[in-house]
Write a structure and sequence with these properties.
The protein has 452 residues and is mainly beta. The chain folds into three domains: 116 residues, Sandwich (Immunoglobulin-like); 201 residues, Immunoglobulins (Immunoglobulin-like); 96 residues, Immunoglobulin-like (Sandwich), CATH 2.60.40. It has six helices and 29 strands. The longest helix is centred in the first third of the chain and has 16 residues. It is globular. The N and C termini lie far apart (67 Å).
Length: 452
Amino acid sequence: MRKIITLIFTVLALTLWAEPNFYPPTVVAEDFCRLGCENCLNAFAGLELMHDAHHPGEMISMRYYTDSGDLSSQEIQTRFEHYLVYGVPSLIFGGKTRIDGGGDGIADGSIYANALKNYLYHASPLKIQIVSFNPQNGQLSGTVTMLSPELSLVNQRIFFVLIEDDVQENATRVVRRVIYQNFNLSGANATADFNHTFEYDPAWDTDKLWAAVFVQQADNTILQAASSLAQPEVNLRAAFDWEPNVVVDPNSTHNSQDVFFFNLGIAQDYQIMIVVDSAPEDWYFNYCDSDGNCYPGSINLPFDLAAGEIRDLHLNLMVGSSGIAEFHWEITSDALGTYIVPFRYRTSDMAVSDPSLVSAALSLGMAYPNPFRSTTSFQVHSLKTNHSDAIQIFNLRGQMVKELPLARLNLGENTITWQLNSEEKKSLGSGIYFYRLKSAPQAGTKKLLMLR
């Protein structure tokens, strides 16, 4: 049995409640497609696997159709233009992570799953509640609550989306209307009510309509979403405001920041333990509650949560020799099945070899201006300081024409400017170019239009 330090064998039901200033996110997957697009079928298949694995409180997806008759509209085309989507299929998670094209990794959902996991446990500063939606007349109402005492939303956008299921073969979750309005919200527990009525086409089947609401910032980050879809009766979520890919020193102890478990459904008797997927033999995995009681990760223990209860725990690790540890909290019940919260730790003397770690720590945003003539800037969001990488730019033939180094990035938003030098002005002509992070090509490419 793995080593246990100061472990108290008690039932976890008596731990103190905690009230975090965030809420579990509902991740939005925006699917850009077209009727008759063969690769779009791959995207649909991969997304269906995501829906099979995640309920509507965790992820919702919506399809924007271009050049597809009455499935298309100017409102939908505006979303294509907003994200500069020129080719389909293209899938965007959370407004930030873009995955283009089809193929095996798309059809089997593996690339989508890798992108989605970077959003599922994020700490959202907002809570959105849809109070009512009447599919017969299109009336939608609800509330947005600010949980963060620090974030201030000024002139940001709240989107109202009307979606129809099963319109025709291979056409479901079809966006019919997408409208936005600007709003302001700041101060912990401040609320903003919304009321919107969708205009209908008589041909739409009202029995198959549902609504979604999401808040999107100017940098395209979707902070939170909600839908009128039914939520599961047993609904456990975890959220935390720190990066789950952690660097630690060898031969040290580590106490993580808190992980909050939200019971958003009925009361439930769970079991909880830490399952180690791979790790050096001399690492020991335990966890503690807010009272300071610590528990052996390798033993399945009761974890009872009342309806609406929030519980916080933190990891308590004994780090031994150099290496990489992949493990997860595993919470089970007969009604829930299995819910996991994954982590990946590596010692500070180990090189980063997994590009998914980089893509989790870095997010490459849109270029502005785009189209551009001689100068454009890229937004790069970094979850840690002094991160380094590069932006690679390719022409239509797949030849790299520029590599912009990203060195000593600041925490948060960074602006990287590309100003064509005299040689580039001579050799590079008008047309479409593509850009991506050097260390995370699987995170997808974005398009750039040069006008000369």
